[in-house]
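Bug report (template v2)

What were you trying to do?
Predict the complex of my protein with adenosine monophosphate.

What happened?
Run completed; filing so the output is reviewed.

Input:
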Amino acid sequence: MPVKGRLREPSVDLLEHAGFAPDAPDERALAFACAGAPLEVLLVRAADIPEYVQDGAVDCGITGADLVRERGGNVRELLRLDYGHCTLEPAVLIESEVATVEELDGLRVATSYPRLTHELLRDRGVAAELVDVTGSVEVAPRLGLADAIVDLVSSGNTLRTNGLRSLGPLFSSEAVLIGPEEPGSGALQLASVFRSVVDARASRYLMMNAPESALEQICEIVPGSGSPSVIPLSEPGMVAIHALVPAREVWRLLPRLEAAGASSILLVPVERLIT
Ligand code: AMP
């Protein structure tokens, strides 16, 4: 797992949510065993993780999909983890005349992702001169080191602060669990445990009461996994409806359900989900 940076905390959270608490919690430890599970966690730089996995030094690893592509090793993505979302985007100075990715052809582009940038620009038919920098990429155009940059963006604030304008995303990244080309049973097992957590986080359990007459309309509104459970209530003509729904749909769903006649609507988080 990443020892520092943006992926560290959410990776520790995932591990804990999956039930793997460190045996002896110590903020500075670079390796720890997990209480009650045959699992040993090593904390290393996110950029080094693809290599650790490829060399078989570890059974699997968590890192950014961007770093996996940049390192280009023989590793397999076992699971997308739904955090650490960001995009790799080319950007130019606000006052630049460059308006499209294609116009980067023949220009100098600074990036700390030379391999991935080369591949992504080539796919768009663009041959740029890449300037390989390791940090503070966003100052390169102002310093005259490059005409554009290609860098990771999540909120877009860093680009704005540095007077840069994005030309649109080239690649979408998030944290991933990776294993070797032929993952062992331990890695596959861990992937399925993590999958149950990732899927659970994306879901909510919805419960409500409604008159039987509203059932058909409510079933049409409720998206997601199969048909909802319908349970008769002691009050004649009333039913309870239970369903698993995508978390991101909830804001849209609740007012519609209310309008359709649902009452006592309860929404609860899901701990694990195995489909
Ligand atoms: P770092 O915090 O520099 O160690 O970032 C490690 C990884 O976090 C990157 O390779 C990305 O996969 C991910 N990440 C998510 N959002 C961002 C962002 N806005 N800038 C840089 N990295 C990000």
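What did the reviewer find?
The radius of gyration is 24 Å. The chain is about 25% helix and 30% strand.
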